[in-house]
Write a structure and sequence with these properties.
Pfam families: TTRAP. The chain has four helices and no strands. The chain is globular. Helix 1 packs across helix 3 and helix 2 runs antiparallel to helix 3. By secondary structure, it is mainly alpha-helical.
């Protein structure tokens, strides 16, 4: 399975809402509002998420940032 850094996991938590497709849609929509460094992190994270199957994504320990 794909390994995520702490920074990538934190980013997933911010944009996690529902399933994999919703996370990718949320994060992609936010790209224009990010600075260059954050955009690079988001694109790398999106690439890793895209490589996961829906089942693999469901197994990730990702919680919405307001649920912690």
């Amino acid at each position: 399975m794909v390994q995520f850094t702490v920074e990538e996991t934190n980013l997933l938590s911010i944009y996690h809402e529902g399933g994999k497709a919703q996370l990718m849609e949320n994060m992609t929509a936010a790209l224009p509002d990010m600075d260059a460094d954050m955009r690079e992190l988001a694109r790398r994270t999106l690439s890793k998420v895209d490589a996961l199957t829906d089942e693999e994504y469901a197994e990730l320990a990702v919680y919405a940032a307001d649920e912690a």
